[in-house]
Specification:
The protein is an alpha/beta fold. The chain has a single domain, classed as Rossmann fold, CATH 3.40.50.880. It contains 4 helices and 9 strands, in the order βαββαβαβββββα.
Protein backbone atom coordinates (compact mmCIF):
# COMPACT_ATOMS: atom_id res chain seq x y z
CA UNK A 1 0.00 0.00 0.00
CA UNK A 2 1.37 3.40 -1.00
CA UNK A 3 1.05 5.95 1.79
CA UNK A 4 1.80 9.66 1.50
CA UNK A 5 2.75 11.32 4.78
CA UNK A 6 2.41 15.10 4.67
CA UNK A 7 5.15 16.37 6.97
CA UNK A 8 4.03 19.52 8.74
CA UNK A 9 7.55 20.16 10.03
CA UNK A 10 7.11 18.09 13.18
CA UNK A 11 9.60 15.95 15.08
CA UNK A 12 6.97 13.20 15.44
CA UNK A 13 6.52 12.72 11.68
CA UNK A 14 9.14 9.99 11.42
CA UNK A 15 7.69 8.10 14.38
CA UNK A 16 4.53 7.80 12.27
CA UNK A 17 6.60 6.81 9.24
CA UNK A 18 8.39 4.05 11.18
CA UNK A 19 5.10 2.62 12.46
CA UNK A 20 3.68 2.62 8.93
CA UNK A 21 6.81 0.95 7.55
CA UNK A 22 6.62 -1.67 10.32
CA UNK A 23 3.08 -2.34 9.06
CA UNK A 24 4.47 -3.10 5.57
CA UNK A 25 3.52 0.17 3.90
CA UNK A 26 5.47 1.87 1.16
CA UNK A 27 5.79 5.36 2.65
CA UNK A 28 6.70 8.62 0.91
CA UNK A 29 7.19 11.75 3.01
CA UNK A 30 6.65 15.21 1.53
CA UNK A 31 6.76 18.51 3.40
CA UNK A 32 3.56 20.53 3.21
CA UNK A 33 5.20 23.19 1.04
CA UNK A 34 7.37 20.91 -1.11
CA UNK A 35 4.80 19.06 -3.23
CA UNK A 36 2.06 19.77 -5.72
CA UNK A 37 -1.60 18.84 -5.39
CA UNK A 38 -1.22 16.63 -8.46
CA UNK A 39 1.49 14.46 -6.81
CA UNK A 40 -0.98 13.34 -4.14
CA UNK A 41 -3.10 11.47 -6.70
CA UNK A 42 -0.61 8.57 -6.95
CA UNK A 43 -1.05 7.38 -3.36
CA UNK A 44 -3.59 5.01 -1.80
CA UNK A 45 -3.89 6.76 1.56
CA UNK A 46 -2.76 10.06 3.07
CA UNK A 47 -1.53 10.79 6.61
CA UNK A 48 -1.51 14.42 7.73
CA UNK A 49 1.23 14.69 10.35
CA UNK A 50 1.28 16.76 13.52
CA UNK A 51 2.98 20.12 13.36
CA UNK A 52 3.46 23.47 15.06
CA UNK A 53 1.10 26.39 14.69
CA UNK A 54 -2.31 26.30 13.07
CA UNK A 55 -3.57 24.76 9.81
CA UNK A 56 -3.55 28.05 7.86
CA UNK A 57 0.24 28.19 8.38
CA UNK A 58 0.81 24.64 7.03
CA UNK A 59 1.43 24.98 3.30
CA UNK A 60 -0.88 22.82 1.16
CA UNK A 61 -2.37 20.94 4.13
CA UNK A 62 -5.90 22.34 3.78
CA UNK A 63 -5.95 22.34 -0.05
CA UNK A 64 -4.97 18.63 0.00
CA UNK A 65 -7.96 17.84 2.21
CA UNK A 66 -10.27 19.98 0.07
CA UNK A 67 -9.20 18.26 -3.15
CA UNK A 68 -8.82 14.64 -2.01
CA UNK A 69 -11.38 14.11 0.79
CA UNK A 70 -14.00 12.76 -1.66
CA UNK A 71 -11.61 10.21 -3.22
CA UNK A 72 -8.79 9.29 -0.81
CA UNK A 73 -8.55 7.73 2.63
CA UNK A 74 -7.14 10.45 4.91
CA UNK A 75 -5.97 10.29 8.53
CA UNK A 76 -5.12 13.56 10.28
CA UNK A 77 -3.01 13.55 13.44
CA UNK A 78 -3.14 16.54 15.82
CA UNK A 79 -2.66 19.50 13.42
CA UNK A 80 -4.05 17.19 10.74
CA UNK A 81 -7.29 16.73 12.66
CA UNK A 82 -7.52 20.47 13.25
CA UNK A 83 -7.14 21.06 9.50
CA UNK A 84 -9.91 18.55 8.75
CA UNK A 85 -12.17 20.36 11.20
CA UNK A 86 -11.49 23.74 9.58
CA UNK A 87 -11.83 22.53 5.98
CA UNK A 88 -15.36 21.31 6.66
CA UNK A 89 -16.40 24.47 8.51
CA UNK A 90 -15.40 23.96 12.14
CA UNK A 91 -13.42 26.39 14.24
CA UNK A 92 -10.48 25.84 16.57
CA UNK A 93 -10.33 26.88 20.18
CA UNK A 94 -7.14 27.60 22.11
CA UNK A 95 -7.12 25.62 25.35
CA UNK A 96 -6.42 27.21 28.72
CA UNK A 97 -4.15 24.25 29.50
CA UNK A 98 -1.36 23.28 27.11
CA UNK A 99 -0.90 19.53 26.75
CA UNK A 100 2.70 18.78 25.85
CA UNK A 101 3.98 15.30 26.52
CA UNK A 102 0.98 14.51 28.71
CA UNK A 103 -0.90 11.21 28.90
CA UNK A 104 -4.63 11.51 29.52
CA UNK A 105 -7.68 9.29 29.28
CA UNK A 106 -9.89 9.40 26.22
CA UNK A 107 -13.33 7.82 25.97
CA UNK A 108 -14.46 6.41 22.64
CA UNK A 109 -18.11 7.32 22.09
CA UNK A 110 -19.02 5.30 18.98
CA UNK A 111 -19.16 1.54 18.48
CA UNK A 112 -18.44 1.37 14.78
CA UNK A 113 -15.26 3.36 14.20
CA UNK A 114 -12.72 1.07 12.48
CA UNK A 115 -9.71 2.87 13.98
CA UNK A 116 -10.84 1.75 17.43
CA UNK A 117 -11.63 -1.87 16.49
CA UNK A 118 -10.66 -4.26 19.32
CA UNK A 119 -9.64 -1.33 21.55
CA UNK A 120 -11.21 -0.62 24.94
CA UNK A 121 -13.66 2.27 25.29
CA UNK A 122 -11.35 4.24 27.61
CA UNK A 123 -7.71 4.48 26.61
CA UNK A 124 -4.53 6.35 27.49
CA UNK A 125 -3.21 8.69 24.81
CA UNK A 126 -0.24 11.02 24.40
CA UNK A 127 -1.07 14.66 23.80
CA UNK A 128 1.05 17.51 22.47
CA UNK A 129 -1.22 20.44 21.64
CA UNK A 130 -2.90 23.65 22.75
CA UNK A 131 -5.65 23.82 20.07
CA UNK A 132 -8.68 21.59 19.46
CA UNK A 133 -11.65 21.54 17.12
CA UNK A 134 -14.43 23.31 19.04
CA UNK A 135 -17.38 20.95 19.49
CA UNK A 136 -19.81 23.89 19.39
CA UNK A 137 -18.73 24.60 15.79
CA UNK A 138 -18.44 20.99 14.59
CA UNK A 139 -20.14 20.92 11.19
CA UNK A 140 -22.98 18.50 10.44
CA UNK A 141 -20.84 16.36 8.12
CA UNK A 142 -18.30 15.61 10.86
CA UNK A 143 -18.88 13.39 13.89
CA UNK A 144 -16.80 13.33 17.07
CA UNK A 145 -15.76 9.77 17.95
CA UNK A 146 -13.95 10.31 21.26
CA UNK A 147 -13.55 12.91 23.99
CA UNK A 148 -11.17 13.69 26.84
CA UNK A 149 -12.28 14.07 30.46
CA UNK A 150 -13.00 17.78 29.83
CA UNK A 151 -15.31 17.11 26.90
CA UNK A 152 -12.81 18.16 24.23
CA UNK A 153 -12.95 16.33 20.88
CA UNK A 154 -10.10 13.82 20.66
CA UNK A 155 -11.08 12.15 17.38
CA UNK A 156 -13.54 12.70 14.57
CA UNK A 157 -14.64 11.37 11.21
CA UNK A 158 -16.46 12.55 8.14
CA UNK A 159 -19.92 11.01 7.79
CA UNK A 160 -19.61 10.44 4.02
CA UNK A 161 -15.90 10.44 3.11
CA UNK A 162 -13.11 8.18 4.41
CA UNK A 163 -11.58 11.06 6.37
CA UNK A 164 -10.68 10.69 10.04
CA UNK A 165 -8.68 12.59 12.60
CA UNK A 166 -7.15 12.09 16.02
CA UNK A 167 -6.08 15.00 18.22
CA UNK A 168 -3.71 12.78 20.20
CA UNK A 169 -0.53 11.15 18.89
CA UNK A 170 -0.88 7.44 18.04
CA UNK A 171 2.86 7.36 17.32
CA UNK A 172 3.76 8.44 20.87
CA UNK A 173 4.95 5.99 23.52
CA UNK A 174 2.25 7.61 25.68
CA UNK A 175 -0.39 6.00 23.40
CA UNK A 176 0.14 2.26 24.04
CA UNK A 177 -2.47 1.20 21.47
CA UNK A 178 -1.44 3.72 18.83
CA UNK A 179 0.20 1.26 16.46
CA UNK A 180 -2.94 -0.90 16.58
CA UNK A 181 -5.01 2.16 15.67
CA UNK A 182 -2.81 2.79 12.63
CA UNK A 183 -3.10 -0.87 11.61
CA UNK A 184 -6.88 -0.66 11.97
CA UNK A 185 -6.93 2.43 9.75
CA UNK A 186 -4.79 0.72 7.12
CA UNK A 187 -7.08 -2.33 7.18
CA UNK A 188 -10.29 -0.28 6.88
Amino acid sequence: MKILVIDNYDSFTYNLVHYLEDLDCEVTVKRNDQLTLEEVAFFDKIVLSPGPGIPDEAGLLKPIIEKYAPTKSILGVCLGQQAIGEVFGGKLTNLDTVYHGVATKVTITVDNEPIFKNIENTIDVGRYHSWVVDEKTLPEELEATSFDENGQIMSLRHKKYDVKGVQFHPESVLTPQGKQMLKNWLDS
